[in-house]
Amino acid sequence: MTTPSLKYAYFPGCVAQGACRELYQSTNAIANALNIELLELKKASCCGSGTFKEDSQFLEDTVNARNIALAEELNLPLLTHCSTCQGVIGHVDERLKRSQTEDTEYFNRVNGLLKQEGCSPYRGSTEVKHLLWVLVADYGLDAIREQVTRSLQGLNCAAFYGCYLLRGQQEPWENPYQPESMERMFETLGATAIYYRGRTQCCGWPLSSYATEESFKMAGGHLQEAIAAGADCLVTPCPLCHLNLDSRQPEVARVVNRPLGLPVLHLPQLLGLALGLDPEVLGLDRHVVSVAPVLAKLGIDG
Question: Please, which domain of life does this record's source organism belong to (predicted)?
Answer without folding.
Answer: Bacteria
